[in-house]
Amino acid sequence: MKYIDEYHNTEAVAAFAGKIKSIGSRKWNIMEVCGGQTHAIVRHGLDQLLPDEITLLHGPGCPVCVTPVNIVDKAIEIAGRQNVIFCSFGDMMRVPGSDGDLFGVKSAGGDLRVLYSPLDAIRIAEENSGKEVVFFGIGFETTAPANAMAILWADQIGLENFSVLSAMVLIPPAMELILSSRSNKVDAFLAAGHVCTVSGYEQYEVLSQSYSLPIVVTGFEPLDIIQGIYMAVAQLEDGRAEVENQYSRSVKREGNFAALRIMQEVFTAVDRTWRGFGMIKSSGLAISDKYRRYDAEEKFGKVDDISDKDSECISGDILSGTKKPFDCHAFGNKCTPDNPLGATMVSSEGACSAYYSYRNLDLKKAGLK
Ligand code: SF4
């Protein structure tokens, strides 16, 4: 099928792997910051096609993984209230809070609905005027426009029983945190194509210049990713530090003007805690004063200011590229997708979960499975 098969073409992927081998002269660490790319890399074994000199690091590209415990706790508390219909994307349902998850609330009789779009929550609110309908707004720049649109729509029709619990985060501040760390190992980034489809990549040019490192905006299919890696290695070998756009079939430098405009209208940037990382300045999107009545924290109280309890979890080190899932002693025994202890095991797009699902042989070899 056109646009599917051509980006899965194994000969073309192998040809790029050969080109990377032919130009690589030293060790380079390249980090992707997209859970979809992490999943595709591990699932298709793209990292195993690369020469030993090229190491792929799996950064904070999964919004489910980085949603902090205190916001999950707030979601569980709101969802457990009598008069609330709590709406969420399915992958948040089993993310562990301090004590349980949203599935636990549902099995205890809570009214939880799994949705594909926040706009569906508007319809549910219209049909249930006697109840408060709360949408769990998680995600990166990719999902923020739809959340903004739901709030604008609610405002337009004068809906009073709808609100959003915002856990939305922005990628560039997390990339900057990694680069500014003393232990930074990243030589180049693959930026997430879907995020840049909304945001464009002007902000990435600032990062690239400030830290003198290549950034390649990259898609999700195997051929996209291997080409993105090739472009990053070519820049590193040439001593260049630029932003290049591998995903030009979707991404424009200026991004999606309409999406950015509604995000700017409805949200404001705030400091936000990332699970496994801690607080990152100006990395979150909160609902602006103008639309405060649609902020679930206004209706149900603020999120508690507690820190993560993933004490034995090293997901922060994995997300910042200093460790790999196999470096964690809990991987595959105490921590599995059915019983996740930390950020990078909670979603199928997390690095630990992807390694657990697609590196069975390695697990067997390590005596872990
Ligand atoms: S295996 Fe589990 S405990 Fe270990 S780093 Fe990954 S998520 Fe954390």
Structure description:
The chain is an alpha/beta fold and 369 residues long. The protein has a domain at 64-169 and 255-300: 3-Layer(aba) Sandwich (Rossmann fold), CATH 3.40.50.11740. It has 17 helices and eleven strands. The chain has helices at 10-23, 35-43, 46-49, 63-66, 69-79, 102-107, 118-127, 144-156, 171-180, 193-199, 202-211, 222-238, 257-266, 296-300, 315-319, 351-358, 360-365; strands at residues 28-32, 54-58, 84-88, 111-114, 132-139, 162-169, 188-192, 215-218, 243-245, 267-274, 278-287. α7 runs parallel beside α8, α8 (144-156) packs across α13 (257-266) and α9 (171-180) packs parallel to α11 (202-211). The longest helix is centred in the middle third of the chain and has 17 residues, at 222-238. Iron/sulfur cluster is lined by residues 313-315, 318, 325, 328, 330-331, 335, 340-342, 344-345, 352.
- Written as H for each helix and E for each strand, in order along the chain, the element string is HEHHEHHEHEHEHEHEHHEHEHEEHHHH
Biggest sheet record? 6 strands, mixed
CATH architecture of the domain at 64-169 and 255-300: 3-Layer(aba) Sandwich
Q: Report the CATH topology name of the domain at 64-169 and 255-300.
A: Rossmann fold
N- to C-terminal separation?
36 Å
Please tell me how large the radius of gyration is.
21 Å
What integer is the average pLDDT?
Answer: 92
- CATH class label of the domain at 64-169 and 255-300: Alpha Beta
Helix content: 40-55%
What is the general shape? globular
Number of strands: 11
Helix/strand/pairing class, anyone? alpha/beta
Flag low-confidence runs.
Answer: none
* Strand content bin: 15-25%
Spatial order of the strands forming the largest sheet: 4-3-5-6-11-10
How many helices in DSSP terms? 17
What name goes with the CATH superfamily of the domain at 64-169 and 255-300? HypD, alpha/beta domain 2
Small-molecule binders: iron/sulfur cluster
